[in-house]
Amino acid sequence: MKTYFNFKYMAIATVFAASSLSLTSCDDFLDLKPTGTFTEEQLDDSSIEGLMASAYAGLEAHFFGNNESFAGPITNWVFDVRSDDALKGGGDITMEQYIHQLEVSNVTSDNAVALDKWRNNYYAISRVHKAMNAIENSNIANKATYLGELKLLRAYFYFDLIRIFKQVPYFTENEDPNGKRADEYTRDQIFSFIKQDLVDAYSVLPEEQSQAGRFNKYVAAAVMAKVSAFTSSWSDVETYANYVIASNKYDFYDNYGDMSKIEFNNKKESIMAVQFSIANNNAHINWSNLLNTTYSEGALFGTGDDFFLGSQNLVDAFATDNNGLPYLDGSDHYVKTTENGDGNYDGNVDPRLDFTVGRLGMPFRGHTYNKKWCRAYDIYGEYSGKKGLIDPSSPDMVQGFPWGASALNYCIIRYSDIVLLKAEALIEQNKQLDEARTLINDVRKKAQRSIDGNYTPQDLDPFNANYNVGLYPSEGWTQEYARKAVRMERRLELAMEGNRWFDLLRWNTAVSTVNAYMQSEQRYHTYYAGNSISEDELYFPVPYEEVNNSNGLYK
Length: 555
Known about the structure:
Blueprint: E1 15-16, E2 21-22, H1 45-56, H2 67-71, H3 77-80, E3 86-89, H4 97-103, H5 112-136, H6 143-162, H7 187-204, H8 217-230, H9 234-246, E4 270-274, H10 279-282, E5 307-310, H11 312-317, E6 319-320, E7 348-349, H12 352-356, E8 363-364, E9 367-368, H13 377-380, E10 410-414, H14 415-428, H15 433-449, E11 466-467, H16 479-493, H17 500-506, H18 510-521, H19 544-548
C-alpha cells in the first residue's frame, strides 16, 4: 500500500477564525511525524484548534493541487454526470475525458475520478486520525466534544467512499493502515462502523457551536439520516430526521435562490456545509466547482470552462400540469426556449428550473443567458449550472481567475434534503402518509414563494415562462403515488447538488433509469448512442494504481 496514509505527508497547520473556518496555504504546513505525539504541555488551545481545522480542511478536497479537486470533488458533481441529471460539458468530449467515461458508463479502474476520490478521502481520514490520537492522549477539557466532531468527520469520509467503491479498507486511529485489505470487512460491516461513529458523535456533541462550520449534534443526526436511507433503515431515517426537524434550528429559505447568496452561508437550510473563503489569495475557494462556471458573454464570470450542464431530461422534469404538479406518469414534455422566443415551450414549469440552469433568453443572475454563454453548444447545448455561482456584480466574486470563485459555501446537507428523507421514510413504512404529503408540500411552498419576479438578482422571467407550482392534494395519495412524488421532489429540489446518482443507487433504479435516459438523451447528444450501464458498473473497483502499490493487499 502506498504511503498516502502516512501522517508525515499531511498538512497540519491551520486555525479557526473567530467566526468561520480560515485556512492557511498548503505550502505553509507543519510536517508532523507519523509516530509523534503531543505532550500535555504541548497540546494547548492553539495546537488543538490547528489539529481540528486541519481535519475539517479535508472537506475541501484540495490537498496539493487543483486536479484532485476537479476529479475527486467534495461536491460530487462528477457523479451527477453518471445520472440522468447532467452532462460533462466543457469544450469537447475529449476534454477531461475521464469524466466523459463516467457519463457514458465506460468506467475503468485507472479512471482519475476513482483515484483522486480515493486519495482525497484517505488523506482526510489520516488528518482526522492524527487529531484523534493527539487528543485521546491528552487531558484537555472538552475532549469528548472534539472526538465527537472527529468521529463525525471520519464517518462522512467513509460514507462517501462506500457509496462510490464496492470495497474499501476500513481502519481506525489505532490501527496501521498499511496492513489493511480492501476485502477485510463487508459493506454491511463498514456501514455499521460508520453508524456507530455517528451514534457516538450525536451523544456527545453540543446543540450549538460558537464557530461557524463546526459540527453540532444535529449535523450528526442529518448524516445518520443520509446513511440510514442508503441502507434502507427507514425507522432510523425517521428518528434522526425528526431530531433535526424538532431542533427548530433550521428552516426553509425564503426564496430558492437564497442558497446561492453568501449572506445565507450557515443560515436557514445550511446543516452541514464546507466553509469557503476568498482570503489568503483565494487558496480556499471551492476548487471543486472551478470547472463548472459558465462561459458567459463579456466574461461576467471570467472565461468559465462550462462543465457540468443540465441534461434535457432534467429540464423536462420541471414541467408541471394545470394544477402545478410534476408529471409522474413518465410522459415526455420538451421544455425548450430559444433566444428570440419563437417556438418556446408554452406549458407550465416549476420555477426551480430557472434557479438551477441557464436557458436561452432567460435571466442568469440579472443578465440574459444566450449562446455566447455556451462553450460547446453544438455538442452539449445550453443549461449551464447556476447554483454554485453568485451575482457576478458582487464584490464577493473573484474577478478573472479562478473563474466565478467566491466565498459561497457548499452545503453537503441542507434542511430540504432531511425533510424529504423523513417524508420518504414515512412513505416506505406506509404510515402517516398525510404527514409525508405535508412535508413534501412544505418544500413545494418554498418554490411557490420563489415565483416573485422582483427578487434580485433576477433569475426568473414570468413574462417568458409560465411558472406554476401546486400542492399535492389528499385525493389519490396512496403509498405508490407518494413514493413517485417524493422521488420526483428530491430530483427537482436537489438537482445538480450531488445527490441524484446516490439516490438512484439506493433506490435500485440506477440501471433502468440511466439506460432509459441514454436512449432518450441521444436525440440531443449523439455520443450516448450505443452506450449503456450494467449492474457490475455501479460501483468503482479499487483504483488500479492503488492495487499496483498495495503489495498484494488489494485485488
